Amino acid sequence: xxxxxxxxxWIHEASLMFMFGSAALLALxxxxxxxxxxxxxxxxxxxSSALLWFFLTAVQMGGAVTDHVLWLALTxxxxxxxxxxxxxxxxxxxxxxxxxxxxxxxALLSGAALVLISVTSHAAEASPAHFTAIGTxxxxxxxxxGGFWIGGLAVLAMLFARGDENFTSATARFAExxxxxxxxxxxxxxxxxxxxxxxxxxxxxxxxxxxxxxxxVLVLIMVTLALINHFRLLPRQAQPGMAEKLDxxxxxxxxxxxxxxxxxxLLGLLPPTMGS
Length: 276
Known about the structure:
This protein has 10 helices and 2 strands; from the N terminus they run H-H-H-H-H-H-H-H-E-H-H-E. It is globular. The two termini are 26 Å apart. Helix content is 80%, strand content 1%. The longest helix is centred in the middle third of the chain and has 33 residues, at 167-199. The chain has helices at 2-29, 36-62, 67-76, 78-98, 103-116, 122-125, 132-161, 167-199, 206-233, 242-267, and strands spanning 203-204, 273-274. It is mainly α. It has a single domain, classed as Up-down Bundle (Formate dehydrogenase/DMSO reductase fold), CATH 1.20.1630.
């Protein structure tokens, strides 16, 4: 059950990150992408995976599939109450895409839905003096900057695939904001890891440490690719073949980012520590 929930959570978080990151970058660029059907489809994936995540978690908490168990999980648990708020935000975000609202509105709605996941995270629970706002803010920033990175990469890949003339300027703008996002992502990630591992009682679980280590290695590879893109390929993309190399690196970053999100989703369900 835990592995299944982790997969559903992975799908949900990845789709939400795509929604937020793509809308945020498009708002910065003041661009609109054709093919809104893809983004609407991903909004549908985010909505359906949120419903499935709630259902499976409610069954796991209650041990049975009954109306009473689902109602109690929905109304009496913090997870259920946050799910209700996230559901409203997801529906509004879908309407924003369907009605072609400003990209800023889409980014705000999907970003708020993304941040709500942080309220019940390990970082929030392990916050100093049980002041959960500390971990929530840190983990929320971690989600948002990761979403901007992944969603922004997806936009760049789509621009290149269709030969859009805005690809060069979009890549340059993304590189500027992306470096800030990556810096915040790394800082909040280190803060979250330290809070969780040092703030919990007992010894760290080997599985949690192994998954965390794998995530850090992949993030390091992503950062390396981002630095190559920013300092080597981007200044030379007018040269023959450089734009294609830049696109390959962007796609590699995006793919690694999806794997990182999956590992992060698994970490959110694994116990960080065990009794001594």
